[in-house]
Write a structure and sequence with these properties.
Layout (H helix, E strand, L loop, with lengths): L1 H24 L21 E5 L18 E5 L9 E7 L8 E11 L3 E9 L11 E8 L7 E6 L2 E5 L6 E5 L7 E9 L1 E11 L2 E11 L6 E10 L12 E12 L2 H4 L5
Antiparallel strand pairs: 1-14, 2-3, 3-14, 4-13, 5-10, 5-14, 6-7, 6-13, 7-8, 8-9, 10-11, 11-12
């Protein structure tokens, strides 16, 4: 009997240790009972995912940038907390994709209403040019493919893609060398959908009561980084080496929770 009790206690300790170890190794998630990217701290009510500027905690960690791309943690520039993510690409005189990205899988399904917030930074000497440099996008998952992209082109923040929404959202002429806070609302609905964008706390774009649906899948993933779209078929119109910095990423059920300035 004593031997049985000892064995039972050892078994319970092993199970408990496995559970704790599993929590410690888990990354950020977008589920209803989501955890932070530290793996042990519960997220605030109404928050489905957050990342405080580290490559760890995203669904696709460790990331695999295309070609000579880099995606890494840096200490400067940083919006909050002394760290951020640098997404960098270098042109190597060949066609095809130039992506360096973090991804979070299954962030939203049809029928859901989500707010995606993050802060981005481009260098003070960023050269404006007429090629699309995407820094975030939403993509159907099964089958997958680009849907709606957000990018800098010339001195404008724009959206576009196969989702049917295209617009010049805001001027970024005077925002180089500063952290730009962006919150995007997506409400997936066949007739009462919404697509809205806030830049530095000001609503710059709003379409409500319209069809907003991913084309090929019931769910989408959120991707953030750098995508030098123009380099697929053309040489760079600007520098052959570009970086976009990202910090304070969050998915939530309201604008106030997703706004990077608020947490």
């Amino acid at each position: 009997m004593l031997r049985k009790r000892i064995c039972t206690r050892i078994h319970l300790l092993c199970v408990t240790g496995a559970l704790v170890g599993g929590l410690a190794l888990s990354g950020g998630t977008a589920g209803a009972d989501a955890r932070s990217d530290a793996g042990v701290q519960a997220l605030p009510a109404g928050v489905y995912f957050q990342n405080e500027g580290t490559v760890q905690g995203w669904s696709n960690y460790p990331q695999k940038p295309q070609k000579q791309g880099v995606i890494r943690n840096v200490t400067t520039p940083a919006y909050k907390g002394g760290n951020a993510i640098e997404a960098k690409q270098t042109y190597i005189n060949e066609g095809g994709g130039y992506h360096s990205e973090t991804e979070q899988a299954s962030t939203q399904a049809v029928g859901q209403d989500r707010y995606y917030g993050q802060a981005i930074y481009v260098a003070p000497n960023w050269q404006f040019h007429n090629q699309n440099v995407t820094f975030q996008q939403w993509s159907p998952e099964d089958p997958e493919g680009p849907w709606e992209l957000m990018f800098i082109q010339n001195d404008e923040l724009r959206i576009g893609g196969s989702g049917g929404f295209s617009a010049n959202v805001a001027k970024v002429t005077d925002l180089r060398g500063t952290w730009i806070r962006i919150v995007t609302r997506l409400k997936f609905h066949a007739t009462d959908g919404a697509f809205e964008i806030w830049v530095n706390g000001v609503k710059k774009y709003s379409k409500t009561g319209v069809t907003v649906l991913p084309k090929t899948s019931n769910t989408v993933r959120w991707s953030s980084g750098i995508y030098c779209t123009g380099w697929r078929e053309n040489r760079p119109a600007g520098p052959s080496e570009l970086s976009v910095f990202h910090d304070q990423a969050r998915i939530a059920n309201s604008y106030s929770l997703a706004e990077p300035a608020n947490w």
